[in-house]
Write a structure and sequence with these properties.
alpha+beta; Immunoglobulin-like; Purple Acid Phosphatase, chain A, domain 2; 14-stranded mixed beta sheet; five-stranded antiparallel beta sheet; 8 helices; 26 strands; 29% strand
Length: 534
């Protein structure tokens, strides 16, 4: 027995990794009988099901997608209760939920270097249809996930329906919104970031009305090491409602700040940590993010860097550019103070995307022949005036704190006459909808594009329909057409004629029986970026 699990060597699993007999004996202390003179993968006989973190799929293409799982019989233990050895995992993809017609199958290797996570890039499937998938390790079987392949690039497409979600602080509430999102029958889900929060456990939250019990509590202190991040991801991912969402549709995953540290950019954190040391923390965070997300090998972390920005094409209807607004951004101006107004906001050298990603995005926008072009990203593009007392101030951690690159992007869309550009955003823990202008507080002429900001899954707690300052906030920001401060998610329903966005909200997240409703539905007609009620 090793770590509570008996180990077998099964010769029917061919060796995919160059593990010699000597290396296996070293790993297992010479306590295994090996089949023949060759080598084989160690197969544990589990005391409990190792698929306690569920399954997920991601990054769909017309011929396939990534399927993911992670072997973790004891998810919160260091090592997750797994032996320190590669383990063979069988996988199947079927055209029906009962798996009577298996169309693809194979073996993957769950390696300890990646925390026994598995990322299988399935190909050879038919475009534009749903498939079912599952995994097996030894005699144990995972649950079943569903994912849809993308339609053929450029092919006529009548409709795309997808979800937008993120900001799911574990301590702030229950993941009821994820359970509701799982029931939506979506083509894909865009995770805009803040899958985890990095802070220490706090049983009591100091709110505006005084001390309150946190709904749930983080295990341990603030996370720094790879083991810390793995444990925090495991705590979040053990949630059954979140697992239901991950198994319900293919996800396109991006990160924001809390996957590493609050408001970090490039090699800078808020605490003034030596950049070399911070990059060590970032490297641990990037590896853990990749280990827990259904992402392709193209995103495999290289030290402290991870290739996050990429593009998805849905027929002739929708191009989605998934952006990275953290790894290449210059430091926030005004010492990163919220509701600030300083000269640094107009810095010529400021970057949000970095030169390479910005050029990539501009080229994609210029070349796209799709009806709609989406920018799926993390931080608000609307330059909202956060000072409702008659002054001026912006969120310096948003695009509004970087006026030169913000204007460069919007001017490019305007001057190149690129129609039907929609920005999808998170981060704010509120629902917003607005029209994008070079100066949103003094909008002139036709809007350049439209932005929808999805609220949080839980971050911020129950919230309310309207904050007390909402009327003043709307009056100070004529580009803003809708605001709401409840928890939930967004569903986008896109056709050639119009883009419709539904803001789905819960009456509470502090208890598991929160009631979902559609708070607002707004639309844009093709060729006209002005927001209208739907």
């Amino acid at each position: 027995m090793i770590g509570g699990y008996a180990l077998q060597v099964l010769s029917e699993f061919p060796m995919r990794l160059d593990l010699s007999r000597r290396s296996l004996l070293t790993v297992f202390g010479g306590g295994l009988a090996l089949s023949g003179a060759g080598s084989a993968l160690a197969q544990p006989v589990f005391e409990v099901n190792p698929f306690r973190l569920g399954v997920a799929a991601g990054d769909p293409l017309p011929d396939g997608f990534v399927i993911w799982t992670r072997l973790a019989p004891d998810p919160l233990a260091f090592g997750a209760g797994m032996p320190r050895a590669p383990v063979a995992v069988m996988w199947e993809v079927a055209s029906d939920r009962g798996f009577s017609t298996v169309v693809r199958s194979g073996e993957a290797v769950a390696r300890p270097e990646l925390g026994h996570s598995v990322h299988v890039e399935v190909s050879g499937l038919e475009p534009g249809r749903p498939y079912f998938y599952r995994f097996r390790a030894g005699d144990e079987r995972s649950g079943v996930g569903i994912a849809k392949t993308a339609p053929v690039v450029g092919s006529p497409l009548s409709r795309v329906r997808f979800g937008v979600a993120g900001c799911q602080a574990y301590e702030s509430g229950f993941y009821t919104a994820h359970r509701k999102l799982a029931a939506e029958d979506l083509d894909f889900i865009f995770l805009y970031g803040d899958y985890i929060y990095e802070g220490r456990g706090n049983p009591i939250y100091q709110g505006g009305s005084g001390p309150q019990d946190n709904t749930r509590v983080h295990l341990g202190g603030e996370v720094y090491s790879l083991d810390d991040y793995r444990r925090r991801y495991a705590q979040y991912t053990m949630d059954a409602d979140l697992q239901a969402s991950r198994a319900s549709a293919a996800w396109f995953c991006t990160f924001d700040d809390h996957e590493v540290d609050n408001n970090w950019v490039t090699d800078i954190d808020q605490d003034g940590t030596d950049p070399d040391l911070f990059l060590l923390r970032r490297a641990a965070a990037m590896q853990a993010f990749y280990e827990f997300m259904p992402m392709r090998k193209a995103a495999f972390p290289r030290g402290s860097a991870l290739q996050l920005y990429r593009r998805a094409e849905y027929g002739d209807l929708l191009d989605v550019n998934f952006l990275d607004t953290r790894q290449y951004r210059t430091d926030q101006p005004c010492d990163d103070r919220f509701n600030s107004n300083c000269a640094g906001i107009n810095a010529d050298e400021a970057q949000v995307l970095g030169q390479a990603q910005e050029a990539w995005l501009m080229q994609n926008l210029d070349r796209s022949s799709a009806r709609w072009k989406a920018l799926a990203q993390q931080i608000m593009v609307m330059d909202l005036n956060r000072n409702t007392s008659g002054g001026e101030g912006v969120n310096t951690d948003s695009w509004a704190g970087y006026r030169i690159p913000r204007n460069r992007l919007l001017r490019h869309v305007r001057d190149q006459r690129i129609d039907n550009v929609v920005v999808l955003t998170g981060d704010e823990h509120q629902n917003f909808a607005g029209e994008l202008h070079l100066d949103g507080r003094n909008p002139e002429g036709r809007p350049i594009a439209t932005e929808f900001v999805s609220t949080s899954i839980t971050s911020g707690g129950d919230g309310s329909d309207q904050r007390a300052d909402a009327p003043r906030f709307l009056a100070a920001n004529p580009q803003l057409k809708f605001i709401n401060s409840q928890r939930g998610y967004v569903v986008c329903d896109v056709t050639a004629e119009r883009w419709q966005t539904e803001f789905k909200v819960l009456d509470k997240v502090s208890e598991k029986d929160g009631v979902l409703s559609t708070r607002k539905t707004l639309a844009i007609a093709s060729g006209d970026p002005r927001l209208v009620d739907a």
